[in-house]
Specification:
Blueprint lengths: L6 E12 L2 E12 L3 E5 L6 H8 L7 E6 L2 E3 L4 H6 L2 E4 L11 H6 L13 H16 L14 H14 L4 E5 L7 H16 L3 E5 L3 H7 L2 E6 L2 E7 L5 H9 L5 H4 L12 E10 L3 E9 L3 E5 L6 H9 L6 E6 L2 E3 L4 H6 L2 E4 L3 H4 L7 H13 L7 H14 L16 H13 L5 E5 L7 H18 L2 E5 L3 H7 L2 E6 L2 E7 L5 H9 L7
Parallel strand pairs: 3-8, 3-9, 6-7, 7-8, 13-18, 13-19, 16-17, 17-18
Antiparallel strand pairs: 1-2, 1-4, 4-5, 9-10, 11-12, 11-14, 14-15, 19-20
Helix pairs in contact: 4-5, 13-14, 13-15
This protein binds adenosine-5'-triphosphate (ATP) and magnesium ion (MG).
Length: 509
Amino acid sequence: MGENDEFILQMKDIDMFFPGVKALKKAKFNLKKGEIHSLMGENGAGKSTLVKVLTGVYHKTAGQVFYDGKQIEPQSPLQSQQIGISTVYQEVNLCGNLTVAENIYIGREPRGSFGQIDWHKMNSQAKELLKNELGLDLDVDKTLSFYPVAVQQMIAIARAIDTQCKILILDEPTSSLSDRETERLFAIMRKLKAQGISIIFISHFLEQIYTICDRITILRDGEYVGEYDIPHLERLQLISKMMGKEVNENQIESNVDKSVPKDEYIVETNNVVVDGKVKDLTMNIKKGEVVGFAGLLGSGRTEIADMLFGVTPINSGEIKVDGVSVKVKEPMDQMMNRIAFCPEDRKIAGIIGDLSVRENIILALQAKDGMFKHMPMSEQKALADKYIELLRIKVSDREQLIKNLSGGNQQKVIIARWLATKPNLLILDEPTRGIDVGTKSEIEALAVRLAKEEGMSVVFISGEMGEMVRTCSRILIIRDHEKLTELNGDEISTAHIMQAIAGDYHGSN
Ligand SMILES: Nc1ncnc2c1ncn2[C@@H]1O[C@H](COP(=O)(O)OP(=O)(O)OP(=O)(O)O)[C@@H](O)[C@H]1O
Ligand SMILES: [Mg+2]
């Protein structure tokens, strides 16, 4: 029996063991009716695993689950959905080749009087749902893969909120959403909460946690640390509890030396045009600087990165690397020019799930050196170990399959892969999305250190202004696929970036 009416869910003494990994150790979790509850912990702490135990994706090794007054044995995601537990998983798990409407109604399609699927009704319902709840006007007859990841994420959310549920689980739903989309999601969450629905919200954005959540449960290394009312837990305390050590303000605010390096360029572009993607871009990247691209989602930040790396060839203009004009037809050309690109969309673009962490780390280096020049195993191992330590990648050992790592740790492996190529220019597109606060400041600090100490140039693209301010010594402001202006050194502040994006601040150039 559930012992307390106040709770819709109680999970007790949950163990979840994978071969060689104890992902959860006597973990517990108490969810009240009608509350928004955050599950916090570093990458690999066990948050997604706890959720998957609840929804029957994984079968727990030990422990009890009480739901709505009764003990349950979660069997499968479908069954958990049927009893009122609706989930948006960290990995978007919809079908790219089905239409948007099919994805929303799969398994519960509206039917006509003869039991046949009522396509017309399905499409119009889907369209309305997306419009009314999320303010999205989509062609629901297009395949899902037609839309960018952020939109796919919204579609997954639409699907989850459309089913009658008592618990809604959102595992990092906002990591690819813009501020406006996040606001909409929050409005929906508040509405559902008012209807008495309980929400489990997982996110690494502290701001969001403090804005939307009532309570918080902290996990560390698969163990329960405690549960707290949000107003009674200060941010620093929260971080200390997640990391298991005392932290002070300075550790979180990694500080950059704002002095701008001298005018030697690793990359220059002159009047570069990529049809529909980059408008007449003239800019440069200096040796040993961390330069940021700031702009709203869809402003063209990523398109410029794609152009620099040769993902999209240019239609006119000139790209110079190290002072020499280069022809760039494909990424391999730029890899040979010692440029590396860690793209935004790591789920799609980078991870080969069935390879080990070691193999994933040496992949880009291997591709660059040619598949025939085999790297000795001892060297591979040393390299993998070096980056596992440098980026604090949580693995049982270097031969673990990458698909079994937590989301945030997978991202770190991809960053390691590109660092291993020892590039002269490293382009990082949203490198800290989905990465916990502790590691996040380490990655920020790493970017700064690589630039200062090893003379590497880093392009840092992030939607988070604070992060740009902490890492960059120069920021290019991108809007409508062109460079509006740039901010240098001491001019860089969150306020100035925002004003510059709005067109109200023009910087010193
Ligand atoms: N299928 C699996 N096989 C083996 N180990 C796994 C598997 N799934 C998760 N793990 C391990 O369990 C631990 C917890 O992972 P989990 O995905 O729950 O972390 P998380 O808290 O969600 O992290 P993140 O913030 O990065 O998403 C990690 O050490 C991970 O490597
Ligand atoms: Mg996770």
